[in-house]
């Protein structure tokens, strides 16, 4: 397989079963106990900003984005990011992240947040969020809470406990995207 054999496509509902399998394979049953999973329980991911890597007819990698809120700030939470074991170490995960961050920028998001390893995500534009600025709904190593700022001042506005943005929009006609653009 060469990099030319991999296509990167917007996620569709037809990909859901394969994505679930990839995430189960990558993270096991413990994925349900993670802080980011708890946030994603609050509402749907943003399918328009989520992508898959496909080789032939098979989904071999996936990245999802979910609108989040922390205090007055709004951003996108990147993850889960997973690539099937047979396709790891070929740049597929990095390419999925780059595509998702570019799509977030084009959609007007001010920042993308994730829980991950700085050596992997740092070269992709992610930096550590100042300790104590944000908290996750479950324990997270604060050194793994990273953000890529797409619009100046957005990360500084993310303060307090992170929740799914849909939980803060109740009773409002505004969408998470509109809220992110206004923050």
Any overview of this molecule?
The structure is a single chain. The N and C termini lie far apart (43 Å). A hairpin with a 2-residue loop joins β2 (51-55) and β3. Helix content is 26%, strand content 29%. The radius of gyration is 16 Å and the shape is globular. The model is unreliable at 171-183 (pLDDT under 50). The protein is of the alpha+beta class. Strands 1, 2, 3, 4, 5, 6, 7, 8 and 9 form a nine-stranded mixed sheet that branches. The longest helix is centred in the middle third of the chain and has 15 residues, at 92-106.
Quickly describe the structure.
The protein is of the alpha+beta class. The chain has helices spanning 16-27, 35-40, 92-106, 118-121, 154-157, 176-182, and strands at 6-10, 51-55, 58-70, 73-83, 111-115, 127-128, 134-135, 145-149, 160-164.
């Amino acid at each position: 397989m060469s990099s030319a054999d991999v296509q990167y496509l917007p996620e569709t509902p037809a990909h859901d079963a394969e994505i679930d399998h990839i995430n189960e394979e990558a993270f096991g049953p413990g994925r349900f106990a993670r802080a980011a999973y708890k946030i994603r329980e609050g509402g749907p991911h943003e399918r328009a900003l989520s992508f898959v890597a496909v080789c032939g007819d098979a989904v071999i990698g996936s990245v999802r984005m979910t609108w989040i809120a922390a205090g007055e700030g709004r951003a996108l939470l990147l993850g889960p990011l997973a690539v099937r074991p047979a396709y790891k170490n070929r740049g597929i995960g990095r390419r999925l992240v780059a595509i998702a961050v570019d799509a977030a920028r084009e959609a007007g998001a001010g920042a993308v947040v994730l829980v991950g390893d700085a050596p992997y995500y740092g070269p992709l534009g992610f930096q550590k969020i100042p300790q104590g600025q944000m908290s996750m709904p479950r324990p997270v190593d604060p050194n793994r809470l990273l953000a890529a700022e797409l619009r100046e001042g957005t990360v500084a506005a993310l303060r307090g406990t992170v929740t799914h943005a849909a939980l803060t929009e109740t009773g409002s006609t505004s969408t998470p995207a509109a809220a992110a653009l206004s923050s």
